Amino acid sequence: MSQLAIKSLAKTYGSFKVFDGLNLSAEAGEIVVIFGGSGTGKTILLRLIAGVEEPTAGAIEIAGHDVSDIAPEHRGVGMAFQNFALFPHMNASENIATPLRAAGADESKVAAGVAKVAKLLKIDHVLNHSPRELSNGQKQRTALARALAASPKILLLDDPLRNVDAKLRFEMRLELPRLLRQSGATVLYVTQDYKEAMALADRIAVLANGQFVQTASPEDIYMRPATLGVARLFGDPSINTAETVIETQGGTHVVLGGTRVPLADSYRGFAGREVIFGVRPESVTIGSEGVEAEVIAVTPLNERTVLLLQNPNGWEFLASLPSTASNIPEAGSKVRASFAAAGTHLFDRQTGERLDG
């Protein structure tokens, strides 16, 4: 039995439909990242689970029980917001204590609960500080501590690292998985940052157009995206694409920029299909074989160097090479590029769905 189950969930505001028929489950202790762009309904989904808003249709079950008629404070759900939402007239300790006091805990349990979670999050030295005296990192940890204080079964995190600086965001990506697993809660974590999603998730649920278009492990999301849209959401630089047709005369292949690019024979059944060929920039290899191209620009990016390439037929694409590579060409040079199978994908041109070959 799943710790959290969302079944045929729908939410509308008048004639505007946020989502309809949404389904998702999460096991005890699992970290599920809800990933998607602005306006896809990620925060609304968390508010529905928390009980702050009511669904138009469908059910939300926690530990097998429908919680539709249960008040937010009795659902066993903790939530941390991207803007911290700390009470300005309370110090950090009092902020953290609010869910414990709301649940009717006596003061000895409140004090013990605050001390335990503050130690876990390394903010025990600022418990007497007001929110205005805290750094953004300390505010973020205080908000997380408040969400964890009552030992919730379900922990909802609404893009909690969005308003902290880049250094802290990087550090928390490393530290958060350990903290969240120590809590024992089932976690739904909302973010628009694909690196954050990849670093934190046991599974990623990609929300787009009112549906979860793919729910899978970070590896599967990246290496086997269900749609072209999903493929474009993950990766920096983004996936290269080109419209082409699968041909089988003289071997299964596509033609890119006037050059044949071989495909696995398993794609033979798609002969004549109009497709979008996709290849990750890090799966582009510069060598003596493959598609002819000119190097338009060379951009060093720390451990990677990105090349902008253009085929004589006008197709532009990117290659991402290790900066330590010995064969990084200069701008203006002529090269040939081949594509590793692991980073190559074919998507139906009409539907955008990935073809499994």
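That was protein one. Protein two is written in the same sequence-then-structure order:
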Amino acid sequence: MKQAKTLTAQELRRVLDHIATRKHCARNRAMLLITHYAGLRVAEMASLRFADVVDAEGAIKNEIMLRPEQAKGGDARTVFISEKLKKELSAYIKIYTPNDPQEKLFYSQKKSSDGFNANTATQFFHYLYQRAAIPGASSHSGRRSFITNLAAKGVGVRVIMGLSGHRQLSSVQHYIDCNDDQKRKAVELI
């Protein structure tokens, strides 16, 4: 099975530049970056309710508590929100705050919809990456990029396992992409 492409910083910038020219750019930017900066699976991202991410005072939480029904394998986990992601989510909620905090965090244009679901979010990312001319990228690219970037920065595999919700080392290793630039930098450490 072919793995989703891990995006370089330039490719991520290209997708963000594309998003900036489209409708719903604040929402689309937040959806993209929550996968890249928090490593959420698309189904986890699509399941988020406004109250999962925003506290009663209207501030972005430091942590998102994924309930068992939101996480793969039915295992609840804590998702830590970086300051960079907090800024992105804050910008998004300035333009979108639902009347009911139990509504989905990421709205859909369809009036009768309860926001994105896993399938519509997967399609969204497919077409987003296609339109931004990033071949090989898919709905899983953000998660793979998140895990690979942590590994490239020397974050320990056990920490990565905790952040990604993986319970097996082999699962994390499957996600980590290795490229020639990383290999060049590695040999220079000797």
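The chain has one domain: 9-142. Keep this in mind for the problem set.
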